[in-house]
Design a protein that fits this description.
By secondary structure, the protein is an alpha+beta fold. It has 25 helices and 22 strands.
């Protein structure tokens, strides 16, 4: 933990090749146990043997920290080990061999427990890398071959049999199955995969055989990146950790000066032997080891537990920020909703065919990567192929081609089709005219509506709906029970936003926002207290950067999203958010308790030691007991009781999947036909706003 703490010059837990499997495998604890047995034997040995036993016990215990202390001192570093070494040497000089041996034994125990605590909390993270199987089956030259994961190359085809783990990231090229992703994302519900599905290293294949095209090497896959990011995150310090180190670091030389003053001033006023002994006791009493350990142990434990539950906390600062959140701002698309929009209805203007509406819309959206554009293109593909019952009767010529396409940020897209101007976008950018009532009906039903215009004439409206996540209402309810205010921020129109908010149980809704508006509102919300912004980590970058805690949603395998926020939810279960807030709140309480306890020990023991009320044995016992308590309390932050597995989501998620494949029809007036189109659309980065989502024209470069 650095020189300000108990560490001297021994290897830290983070640098060990093999972390201890049990507490008794720690070298310092083995030595302390042996030294304690020898020291206890001094109580029953006759003659001069007790003194010999005390010296032997002192030697065994001191061997765990004195050599490292000397090496650190030669390098110009002063740590707590120096205080303990001087105190032990002084006690020997005064003939207090038993007290010196006790100091060495207790300090060795404290050192060993510190090392064990850090090693164990980090071992769980490193264990993620063992999820990669020792060998992988690949197809090369038409035959199967067994290779080590390190030998996999991008483009290789993995053969993944039922029950096997994936050796690296890839895309399913053939086969269908379900994957257990709980070890990576913390979600217990298996994920159905098929051709085109993105899959990640360490996940477990279900009952079907898969062929997976490799997209990342073993050194650069999602699992390796996750471990690397969390290991870096554990070194990032929060305010409380910096505060502890700020006081602990200068305390060591300060204690040396204080002890010298006690010895010198006391010797001038009284018996030098008495005051020199007291100065040695002050050295031990004022050692800031427990104070310096107060926060780091709790932070590392909290980060390790969260990472195994699918929540990436990027350092102590993230733990503190998330634990202090009073307001959560939720983006709508991709956070409260699935980000899998599909066309659910087409309304044509009088005298216009629905096929013409869809045809012009698809031509305008042909080069857009926006999720709503993908929904329109998928609907057009279904209509052209005639493979979906939802597009029966819609005939497309698919012969039209657009040119001069231009995205209008926050409004829509415009261009030229067959030599005539064409536009598609939100109501207001394109006037609804005689379809105003229909647009309102669709919006009230929770759909996003885009209007299509060609040659200055309104052709019709296309309703696209993104289903709300099945766990969204429960997650919002959990946040409210934690005393957190929930606000929804969206670029969508007010009616659609209100419909989604009603389903989720959110009453504070801010709609029709541009990205810069979201950042401004986050600033305004900070008047209520610390704010967490939850978005996709890319499109909401301004708001994520403005918030006290930026949280990226569903970012497994995404470098950009992981870097965009202080906290990342690796899976798609929104209930991880209140879980993470409760977890970090518990961690904050724990390291606050540790700071108060360790600070109180220092304030209490130093005057008692300086005035002779407590001797060396009592101070050593009190000081090291406090350190043990601080470490044990800090380890509690690694409990995952605040990060439970939500198993009840399975039925809801399956029901949601069924809804996605067969969308719930939007209510229509009697006698009016309705076209309902359903197509799952993968996430995409917005390259131009095609509808009233308000995101505008954005690229990764512009939002990074």
């Amino acid at each position: 933990m650095g020189d300000a703490c108990c560490a001297t010059d021994t290897p830290s837990a983070s640098s060990e090749v093999t972390p201890p499997g049990s507490v008794w495998q720690v070298r310092e604890l083995q030595a302390a146990g042996l030294a304690a047995i020898v020291l206890l034997s001094a109580l029953v040995l006759p003659g001069d043997w007790p003194r010999i036993a005390e010296l032997v016990a002192l030697g065994i215990g001191a061997a765990t920290f004195v050599p490292g202390t000397v090496r650190a001192l030669l390098r110009g570093r002063i740590g707590v080990g120096l205080l303990m070494t001087l105190a032990a040497a002084g006690a020997v000089a005064l003939g207090n061999y038993g007290e010196a041996a006790m100091l060495a034994v207790l300090f060795s125990i404290a050192e060993g427990l510190e090392e064990y605590a850090i090693a164990r909390t980090r071992q769980g993270l490193r264990a993620l890398l063992t999820l990669v199987p020792p060998a992988a089956t690949v197809l090369r030259s038409g035959a199967e071959a067994q290779v080590a994961p390190e030998e996999l190359r991008v483009g290789d085809v993995l053969v993944v049999r039922p029950g096997e783990r994936l050796a690296t990231d890839g895309v399913v090229s053939s086969g269908r199955s379900s994957l257990d992703t709980s070890v990576v994302t913390g979600e217990s519900v298996p994920v159905e995969v098929g051709p085109g599905s993105v899959v990640f290293a360490g996940t477990v294949n279900g009952a079907g055989a898969l062929e997976v095209t490799v997209t990342a090497t073993a050194e650069d896959n999602s699992l390796a990146r996750l471990v690397h990011v969390v290991q870096e995150a554990q070194e990032r310090k929060g305010t409380s950790q910096r505060l502890a180190e700020k006081f602990a670091r200068p305390l060591v030389p300060g204690v040396l000066v204080l002890a010298a003053l006690v010895a010198v001033v006391g010797s001038l006023l009284g018996d030098p032997a008495v005051w020199v002994e007291r100065s040695l006791v002050v050295l031990v009493a004022a050692a800031p080891c427990a104070f310096a350990l107060s926060v780091p142990v709790a932070v590392v434990a909290a980060i390790g537990a969260a990472s195994k539950a699918g929540v990436l906390l990027k350092g102590g600062a993230a733990v503190e920020a998330l634990g202090g959140v009073k307001v959560v701002a939720l983006d709508k698309t991709g956070t409260l909703t699935r980000n899998e929009p599909s066309v659910v209805e087409i309304v044509a203007a009088p005298g216009v065919g629905k096929g013409q509406v869809l045809e012009i819309a698809a031509a305008l959206e042909a080069r857009s990567e926006h999720p709503l554009a993908a929904a329109v293109l998928a609907a057009a593909d279904d209509a052209a192929a005639g493979t979906s019952e939802h597009v029966a009767g819609v005939v497309l010529s698919r012969g039209v081609r657009g040119s001069d396409m231009e995205a209008v940020p926050g409004r829509g897209i415009q261009g030229s089709i067959d030599g005539r101007e064409a536009r598609l976008g939100k109501p207001g950018f394109v006037e609804a005219g005689e379809l105003t009532a229909e647009v309102r009906r669709l919006q009230d039903a929770g759909a996003t509506v885009v209007l299509v215009e060609h040659g200055g004439a309104l052709l019709g409206a296309i309703a696209v709906r993104d289903e709300i996540r099945p766990e969204a209402a429960e997650a919002v309810s959990m946040l409210k029970r934690l005393g957190v205010d929930v606000v929804m921020l969206t670029g969508d129109n007010a009616r659609t936003a209100a419909a989604i908010a009603l389903e989720a149980g959110i009453t504070d809704v801010r709609a029709e926002l541009l990205p810069e508006d979201k950042a401004r509102i986050v600033t305004e919300l900070q008047a209520r207290g610390p704010v967490a912004m939850v978005g996709d980590g890319i499109n909401d970058a301004p708001a994520l950067a403005t918030a006290d805690a930026g949280i990226a949603m569903g970012v497994m395998g995404s470098d950009v999203a992981i870097e965009a926020a202080e906290v990342a939810l690796m899976g798609e279960d929104l209930r991880r958010l209140p879980d993470a807030i409760a977890h970090t709140r518990a961690a904050r309480r724990i390291f606050t308790q540790n700071l108060v306890l360790s600070g109180g020990i220092l304030v209490t023991l130093v005057p008692l030691a300086a005035t002779g009320v407590l001797g060396l044995a009592a101070v050593v016992a009190s000081h090291e007991l406090a350190e043990v308590l601080v470490i044990a309390n800090g380890i509690r932050a690694g409990r995952k009781n605040k990060l439970p597995v939500h198993r009840a989501l399975g039925a809801a998620r399956r029901a949601g999947a069924a809804r996605a494949s067969a969308p719930t029809p939007i209510p229509v007036p009697s006698g009016r036909p309705m076209l309902s189109l359903g197509a799952a659309v993968p996430k995409a980065v917005a390259a131009g706003c095609c509808a009233d989502c308000g995101e505008g024209s954005k690229t990764p470069e512009a939002t990074r």
